[in-house]
Specification:
9 helices, binds magnesium ion, globular, about 350 residues, binds threonylcarbamoyladenylate, alpha/beta
Length: about 350
Amino acid sequence: MKTHIFKVDINNIDNNVIVKAAEIIKSGGLVAFPTETVYGLGGDGLNPNAAKKIYSAKGRPSDNPLILHISDIGQLSPLVREIPENALKLAKEFWPGPLTMIFKKSDIVPNETSGGLDTVAVRFPVNKVAQALITASGTPIAAPSANTSGRPSPTRASHVEYDLNGKIDMIIDGGACKFGLESTIIDVTGNIPCLLRPGSITLEMLRSVLGEVNVDKAVVSKLDKGELPKAPGMKYKHYSPSADVVIVRGDRNKMVDKINELISQTDKGLKVGVIATEENKERYINCEVLVAGSIKEPETIAANLFKMLRKCDHHHIDRVFAEGLCEDELGLAIMNRLKKAAGYCIIEV
Ligand code: TXA
Ligand code: MG
């Protein structure tokens, strides 16, 4: 069975497509839809069977909880036991937008959706197609990224089709996702909020609203054996193309020299790629250069990163060297995804 794909113009949304998609959600089916971060694989967030279908379509372990997406702030309170002051402050500043907050869950959220945890992740996306679908469905939509578990998240409808064609009922194609990295996740259940996954709402932005914010160790470093991240999904191998990914970081000139040296040392039978910045793209030899964007525009690098990782597969690249970035502001989120793709293989220069 081929999954039906419907294109929508985000500036002129065809309501027939939204109604059709909402009917699927209401009857327990699955629809992939665009958000401003990445495409989501949506199902009725209050229907345990829909959650089971999501896990099965993605090949995702069922202890990895799903985010509930709402399209009106009034939908939050039935899902949670309390709304802490810090959550109100963040919602006022960043919702609708690429921020997910973790709350203590209410009883209406099924254990299947929350992966057995007593907390629930909630996000109010700003993308108009996502909002229209949630509103028309009349239920919070549970949606992980619409990729096969372990693969880079989809930022185009074609990525979803590649991974999930035939496994889900419908794909709404709303074009490329604006931010291209999954939402920032912050746990607001404790006294001091804790960043669990960095994203386009940066740590600096969160601290400017809340003051003190802790950072879960899993955000920047590989956990030791036996340690568990607070966001269960952060423990799984992620974002991986088939190629081996190696990050090289440090002084930007030395980095280019090191990457060229590593290319020259690579077995000639292997196809080599470099995920490069615009500024350095002419400087690599004997490899395929994948340009992510300018170092001066980290937003562009973020928006293109997953597409580049997917390109490695399409171009049959065996080993890819990625230019490392400084881990402040958006660089923290970009490096978090790259490090996972690289299995923390980082060469410092
Ligand atoms: O931008 C996004 O957040 C996208 C779009 C579709 O909204 N969704 C997304 O979902 O990235 P997913 O399932 O791929 O990643 C959700 C992450 C996982 O790492 C999961 O473990 C974590 O959120 N998570 C979900 N519920 C949680 C909870 N109650 N406590 C801690 N972490 C949670
Ligand atoms: Mg995901």
